[in-house]
Amino acid sequence: MFNNKVYHKIDALSGSVATLRAEGVKYNEIAEVESRAGTSLAQVIKLDGDKVTLQIFAGARGVDTAAHVRFLGETMKVPYSEALLGRAFTGAGVPRDGGPAIDENPSPIGQPSVNPAKRIMPHEMVRTNIPMIDLFNSLVKSQKLPIFARAGEPYNELLARIALQADSDVIVIGGMGLKYDEYLKFRNTLDQSGALAKTVMFVHTAADPTVECMLVPDVSLAVAEKFALSGKDVLVLLTDMTSFADAMKEIAITMEQIPSNRGYPGDLYSQLASRYEKAVDFDGAGSITILAVTTMPGDDVTHPVPDNTGYITEGQFYLRNGRIEPFGSLSRLKQQVNKNTRKDHRTVMDAMIKLYAQYKETVEKQSMGFKMSAWDTKLLKYGVQFEKEMMDLSVNIPLEEALDLGWKILAENFERDEVGIPTKLTNEFWPKA
Question: Are 236 and 220 in contact, with CB atoms under 8 Å apart?
Fold first, then answer.
C-alpha cells in the first residue's frame, strides 16, 4: 500500500546511510529524501521494527536530520526499451551520455533467479574469435565465468574486444569503480567499430556515490533479462566485481555490521551468487551469459572475493602478463560444445597444451643452465610461436581458422609422430608440404 506520509526527522546520518522511525515500510522500498541539497532517491536496506535504515543514492552530503522523507511504496526499477541500445547510464539509470531519459516499461531489479525447470541445459558455444577462449576454453551460452586478474592487467581491453567480436544479439556492460577515461575508452572503442548500436552501458565511476556501484549488477542483469525474454542472446560483461564487493563492505561498516573475512559482510557469497545465478538459457526465448572481471588484490586468489566466486561460477579465465593463461583457466562446460564443433577440436587443444607445458619446463631447465637437447630446441621455438600467434589477445580469427593455425604451428615445429595425435587425424588435417 502506498505510504503518503512524510517523515520530518532523521535520527542518525552516517556516510550515505540514514536511520529514522517509520511505519508500513517494506525492505528494498524506494524513498525520496528532500533536503537543502535537493531531492535524492534512497532505498530501504534494513528494517528493525519501526527503525528503518536507508541508503541515499547520491550520498548524504547536504542532508541533515530535518530532511523530509517520503516512501514511494515500490522497489527500485529500471526502464526497458530498444531505445536503451547505444546508450550509457549511471548505476541509478540516469543518462550519462547527454541523451534523453528513458522511462518506458519500468522493471524491478534484484528479482529472484529463474526457476531451473524453465532453463535449457547449456549446449551452444558463444564465439568470441579469441583462440585462447574459443579453442582452449570455450564460452558456452548461459555460462557464468569470472576473469581473475591482478591490478594493471588489460582486463577492460579484453572485455571491449569480446564485446566487439562475440556473436551475441545484445551486449550489456556494467562498469563499477571505473576511471572516467576507462569509461570513455570503452565507449569510443565500441562506437568506432559499430558495436555500440547493440550495447547498453551502466557505468559507475570512481567519482560517483558508492551506493550506485552496488546497483550496477542488478540494473544490468534486469535489463539483460528483459532482452533475453524477448528472444535475444545477451552477453553481460561486468567489471569489476571486487569493486562491487568493496562497496558492500563500505556500507556494511557504515551500518556497523559484524564483519566477516577481511572485513567483508558475512553474506558476501550469497550476494555474489544471486547475481551470477541470473545466467540462463530460457526455454522458448533468449539467453543470458555472464563474463565478470574479478580483480585479485596482491594477485591473491584466496582473497574473499575470488575465493567465493570460484565456488559459484563454472570455471574461470586467468589473465596474466596481458594474456589468458592456459594453466589455471578452465571452462567446465566446454565439453558440452567441443564435441559439436570440429572433430579435431579436442585433439588439437590437448596436444598443443601438453606441448606448451613441456615448453614451460624447458624454459626452466634453460634458466638453470642445463644443456638443451634437439627436442628442447624444438619446444623453445614452438612455445614462442604459440604465445605470439595463439595467446596474443589481438588475434581475431574464427575457431576453424584457429584450428587450422594450430595444425600449422605444430607442423612447423614437429614431425607428425612427435605430437601425440592419432594417425587418422594427422592424415586428414596435417598441412601438406
Answer: yes
pLDDT digits (tens, 9 = 90+) for 148-207: 999 889 999 999 999 999 999 999 999 999 999 999 999 999 999 889 999 999 999 988
Q: Are 195 and 163 in contact (CB under 8 A)?
A: yes
Query: Where would I find the H helices in 166-282?
Result: 180-193, 210-229, 241-254, 268-276
Q: Residue 103: how many CB atoms within 10 A of its CB?
A: 10
Name, in order, each residue with C-beta under 8 angstroms of 317's C-beta and a sequence gap of 6 or more: 133, 137, 145, 146, 147, 148, 324, 329
Q: Quick one: what percent of the chain has pLDDT higher than 90?
A: 67
Do 273 and 146 meet the contact criterion of CB atoms below 8 Å apart? Answer: no
All cell numbers assigned to 229: 525474454
Question: Closest Cα partner for 215 from 91, 76, 41?
Answer: 91
Q: Which long-range contacts (CB under 8 A, 24 or more apart) does 98-101 make?
A: none
At 119-153, the pLDDT tens digits run 888 889 999 999 999 999 999 999 999 999 998 89
Q: Which residue in the block uniquely carries the three cell numbers 614462442? A: 384
* Domains of the chain: residue spans and CATH: 6-75 (2.40.10.170), 78-338 (3.40.50.12240), 345-429 (no CATH)
Is residue 429 classed as helix, strand or coil in its secondary structure?
Answer: helix
pTM score = 0.91
C-alpha 15/C-alpha 1 separation (Å) is 30
Residue 388 neighbours by CB under 8 Å, 6+ apart: none
**Distance from the Cα of residue 200 to its chain's centroid:** 14
Across all residues in the chain, what is the average pLDDT? 91
pLDDT for the residue 428:
94
